[in-house]
Amino acid sequence: MARGVRGRGLTRREFLITGLGAGAGLVLLGGCGGDTSEAEGEIQLNFATWGIDAELEAFQNIINQYEAENPDVSINLTHVPSDYYEQLDTRLAAGNAPDIVRMQYQQIGRYSSEGALVDLTPYLSEGDGDEFEPAFWQAVGYEDRVYGLPHHTDTFALFYNADYFEQLGVEVPQSLEECWSWEEFTNLARQIKEETNATFGFAMNWQESNPYRWMPFLYQRGGQFLNDDLSAPQINTPEGIDTIAWTQSWFEEDLVPPNTSVKSTEEIHALFANGTIGMMLNGDWYLPYLEDHMTNFEYGVTYMPCNIEKASDMGGNALAVSKDSNHPEVAADFIKFVVNEDNMRNFVTSATFIPVRTSLLEQELDYRIRPDAMEIFLEQARTIPEHMASVQTLPEFNQINQVMADELELAFVAGQDPRTTAQKIEEGTANALGN
Amino acid sequence: MSEKVMLMLKVSYNRQMSQKIKNAVIWVSVVVAALVMFFPIYWMFVTAVRPREEIFAPEVQLWPSEFVWSNFVEAWNTLPFTQWYINSFAIALIAVVITVFINLLAGYTFAKYDFPGRNVIFLLLLSTLMIPIQVYIVPEYLIVAQLGWVNTYWGVIFPRAAEAFGIFLVRQFMMSIPDELIEAARIDGASEFTIFRKVVLPLSGPVIAVLIIFTFMWRWNDFAWPIVVLQDQEAYTVPLGLNLMQGAYYTEWTYLMAMTLVSILPMLLIFIFFQRYFVQGIARTGLK
Amino acid sequence: MQRRPLQKGTGELRIRIRRWWQRHQRRLIPYLFITPNMIVFAAFMFIPILYAFYISFHDWSLIGTSQFIGLGNYFNMMQDDLFWQVLINTAIYTLGTVPTSMILGLGVAILLNRWIPARGILRSIFFMPVVISGVAVALVASWIFNDHYGIINNTLRQMGSDPIPWLSSPTWAMPSLIIATLWTRIGFCMVIYLAGLQSIPSSYYDAAQVDGASSWKQFRYITWPLLGPTTFFLLIINVIYSFHVFDLIYVMTGGGPGFSTTVIVQYIYQAAFQTGQMGYAAAMGVVLYFIILAFTAIQWRISRQGESIE
């Protein structure tokens, strides 16, 4: 009997532990795990980015410098290696997004129109915008307010395997004016495929759902994706259909590896580095990779092919402040610091990007890797069509991009004919634009 | 007469022989199948120890031309893997303790108590298995963020502490424990919790083993949830680290395979050591 | 003097509480025992799931404000050709993975249930892939199936035959995914079936041997029926796993080529996080839930093995 009573007493305590323990634990832990960030009046900012080592190091250097100048601020750099925007959206929905976010110009429209970014206009002075290249300044604006600061750009050019070119006796264009026509380019691709060790002629980097990189070809052909006031699609035109047909022919003729369509996860730079493909249309930020990995071949860089017009991809990123920041003025001050002339120069030269400050574009830049190739990219960057830039920075662009991914994929791997493809992109785009 | 016996012996001898041949054939085919199953892991290993410039070679080299063991060291040192292993072990071990305890208690209750709402609650728990996490990950994150658990171990451990699958296993197992044992203890005046602790737990060795292995495996391999909760690299677990390694722009296959191999070692060792106990444990859960 | 009545009072209270507890404990204890679990489930499953259900009647992009649209998402789903296409893909993937992995798993389990040399090692080898995380499996599989430098195509080329466009042709992409899945599923089915086999009393087989029943007959009339609950369990769990496949496809094919490997969860992910249609994603999640629930219920009826789970 006595045992039973003691047993029961014990039990009750244990009940408390098991039954309420979990609940109390939740609350307690919640309390402990909460705000550890703002100790001793220090301002803590989180800065989210993705990138390769060179970029991360460059960012960290700038942060160290800023922290030295502002001892009360500490900035935590977070590297988000994959699904960056998915995670950003989740955090915005929960109201705890990082203070400072890096984003592609293509994304600014969407986030600023949904009220996810801080209006930076009050923190800027008159004329700040004039120091940036107009296309990029325009890209960070929405309804006459500024929601980000342009940080850098990058663009596409043509990488080629110099050993194969030597074997074929190919002379590369010496200036932008001499760029290869579409026909010359595909002929060359055929030649590479047939006469060298390469299995395929070339590949284009638009995998992992980056189909918007197809757009420059449309502009080369003299077309445009939307009409002049950006209110309706203009893709279902002879130019549009022609461009789809041409890019589709790469796959039909096996000039490009079949697994390099827009939804694939193939890494074409690896194929280029090991000689499987003789050329690749790709961005400047792959130079560090090739320096390390292309050990069996020499490579060079020349201009994008062209048609009626010249055009290339608009890459690069801006920096913005999220609505969840408790210290928007400090965050804004920091991003102004990151994009100042010195820091922008250091960043682009160490991570092989193209600056977006007019003053820097007029200077000789001391690139650490392949300055000769960077010359070509800098020149090519001037061909980024302004109309394309305004299309890609629309708030609805994310949806348009998905439509392009779906339909171009069907054209490239399932043989959907160019006319239908153009028509379906047109429908999807009109739908996304809400008309 | 003796001829007949001789014949019978011969037949049985032949039968034994053919049985032996049959067994040998079966054994060989199982071994071949096992080799096929093992090949991807072997290939991971070969890719990991191969000189980096060889991995895209078009020739098939089943054996690396030289063993570059330093690949493992270099890969380990490129990123804070030590920290990530500490995090992964801490999360998996704490989660095992909590999950095993509360799942045992709940599974036992569903098996041995009759109370209003039992079946409804049980089916409700099981039906959570049918909804993919992508559907509710945002509201779930919202709650965890409210609790201030972003970037903490608790943020990963608590939301997954109650595993419907685990409760199901325990319940199946507990149903095989005779009611008489429990009733006898009750008549002796033991309290309900004492019965659970002193009578039921000592009999639950096999299912505890299974729960430990499964829980450890789930937490060790979790990806979709931790990647949302753990935002600082400092707080990452091993799978998030591998994902980081595969990285933004290009994959370093040698290093990636080296670290993938290292990441599965703890689980492999656990299974190899507990293999027999594990199978028996599941056998006793009544999934007969 | 003043303390005594108070003490007496608390003493009475304690006794009353104890009496109350003695009277009600049989009824309350089960609820107390499941409380820790229920707190976790409520906070991190039920509430988020109910919230997702609520969101399924809204148009919400995650980052902006949401708007009530009633059954709009559900109507859109009915008219969305792609939704039906991904359901079919999911069904193909499920049919390709579930029966195959169960049959092979059962075969291996039967062979490894008898005493054969190196049995422990063999079992471990078959089970090994099960413990590997989904992302790691996908990475290894993409490495092996790669069109250009994967070991399979390199071998084919060296033997002089044509390489197979594993991940780049709509015909082969799904089979590649199914093969990669089987690699991890067979071991899982094997272990569960092994456990099932071990709980069949050997006396049944002894009796059958006395009657001279062939091995096939023994399988057909003893093993298979007695494995019923195991088969039922594996079928349900495997179907859920197959319907929920995501990591593997996301890493290996990204849903392509075309839509040939886009499955339901991937479409949900895309709607939720890439095209800003969280409400639509939630609505698809609700429909997926009912599909799996219906499948489970039907299976429950058919197998009539409900009792063993009940």
From TrEMBL, chain A:
Name of this protein: Sugar ABC transporter substrate-binding protein
Similarity comment: Belongs to the bacterial solute-binding protein 1 family.
UniProt KW keywords: Signal, Transport
Domain of life: Bacteria
Organism for this UniProt entry: Rubrobacter taiwanensis
Membrane-spanning intervals of the chain: none
The keyword Transmembrane helix is annotated on this UniProt entry: no
GO MF, one annotated term: maltose binding
GO biological process, one term: maltodextrin transmembrane transport
InterPro entries given in the database record: SBP, TAT_signal
Gene Ontology CC terms: ATP-binding cassette (ABC) transporter complex, substrate-binding subunit-containing
CDD domains documented for this protein: PBP2_TMBP_like
Pfam family, one: SBP_bac_1
TrEMBL record, chain C:
Keyword field contains Manganese: no
Location(s), subcellular: Cell membrane
GO biological process terms held by the UniProt record: transmembrane transport
Alphabetical list of InterPro entries matching this protein: ABC_transporter_permease, MetI-like, MetI-like_sf
Membrane topology, record value: Multi-pass membrane protein
GO CC terms: plasma membrane
Domain ABC transmembrane type-1: 87-299
CDD domains: TM_PBP2
Protein keywords: Cell membrane, Membrane, Transmembrane, Transmembrane helix, Transport
Organism: Rubrobacter taiwanensis
Transmembrane regions: 28-54, 82-112, 124-145, 172-195, 221-243, 249-269, 281-302
Similarity remark: Belongs to the binding-protein-dependent transport system permease family.
Name by which UniProt lists this protein: Sugar ABC transporter permease
SUPFAM superfamilies reported in the protein's UniProt record: MetI-like
Keyword presence, Nucleotide-binding: no
